Amino acid sequence: MESMMNLTIEYVKIVNVMLFYRQISDENMPLWSFLLVPVLFELLFFFFPPLAFFGYFVSFVLYSFYRNREKDGGLKLFYGLYPIVLESLLGRMLAFYVFPFFGISVYNEASIGGYDLLIELLVFPLYLVLIKSLKINFQELKAGFARGFFRRFLLPINLSMMVYTVLITAFLVLRDHFSWADSFRGQLNNLYIIIFFVVLLYINAVSKERLEAEVLEQKDSELKALSEYSHHVEELYGEIRSFRHDYMNILTSLKLGIERKDFDSIQNIYNTVLKDSGKPFYSSKFDLAKLSRIENDAVKSVLSAKLLEAQSKGIETSVEIEEEIYDFQIELLDFIKILSILCDNAIEGCLTAEDPKIAIALIREERTLILVVENSTKAEKLELSPIFEKGYSSKGEGRGLGLYNVHTILEKYPKSLISTRSAEHLFSQTIQFCK
């Protein structure tokens, strides 16, 4: 009976740790893992208790390093330590503060009994109450981690969690031999509960503040780009108006020639004026007028800014948008990030080409939006296999930076597909955005 109770407590503890890990790492853990993993730990605790005790502390860290191979080392360690430390803190908070508040004395948290199981059953609900009360937004936290806001701060956080885990375990072992061990363990727990949640509140506040600053910066950038686009459209309108005025004069001259039946004059006007009069409207700068088919101002402004930047660097640009574009199939901010990265790469990649040019196309199908970004390259053909690797750069070779980030964003949208092609001095990226 005692062994069954002990195994049940350990089972619930493992489930709690897995729930904490899933929330902080945003990993979609299947339901069967919550049934199988605790059972495996149970078998380990039953047959090899010392190995199970050690494995409990290191298994989630090792799993985090395996599952998050592309992430920063400090973040992988944080994901592995956070659920272990949090479960320990909340269990002790229930035993030493919440239960006594209701007149229930739980002096020996290692004892086998109903209270120990009840504590483990209440750990996750207590966590949800605390998170809601403290207004901690894990989406903002994870976004802050993903953007590297806390890269330097993660080292002291991880060290503190490791020191806490080692000391708590040491005091637990020593309490049977030294009376002061329990007192020190309680004081350490009291101190670290405060430190832990203060740190959690701090990084949540910093994430929120910096993300809001990013949004404002993005909006300012979009407004600036939209202003440049509007100014460019005004210039194009001025050119068209001037052409209209000149054309009226040409038609008047033709009318006089026709009335006089002066065919030599008519032929001369055609050869010197009319023959090439339409060429200015084939200039790539008039392609920007096609952006009016994009209904979202943010996307329109970003794309216009990139095209104007390319034109200012002497790059020939072309745009193909045949239908109205109003649904981008993914989150707008993610689409803008991908569009910006691909355009920046295209501009950078074609600068060394003999004939620098980029082409951008947006094609709308029933439930799919296709984005194509193509640029000329100096090399006839580029090696494609490493371009999505983290840290890979090929400046001057047509691809630039950021493709790893594109791949990371697209992982959120399993139905979206990206294909890459390089041949005949052209490099192209085609993305199909699907819901």
TrEMBL record:
The chain crosses the membrane at residues 44-65, 77-100, 112-131, 152-174, 186-203. InterPro entries: HATPase_C_sf, NatK-like_C. Keywords: Membrane, Transmembrane, Transmembrane helix. Residues 331-433 form the Sensor histidine kinase NatK-like C-terminal domain. The keyword Transcription does not apply. GO terms for molecular function: identical protein binding. Gene3D superfamilies: Histidine kinase-like ATPase, C-terminal domain. Pfam families: HATPase_c_5 (PF14501). This is Sensor histidine kinase NatK-like C-terminal domain-containing protein.
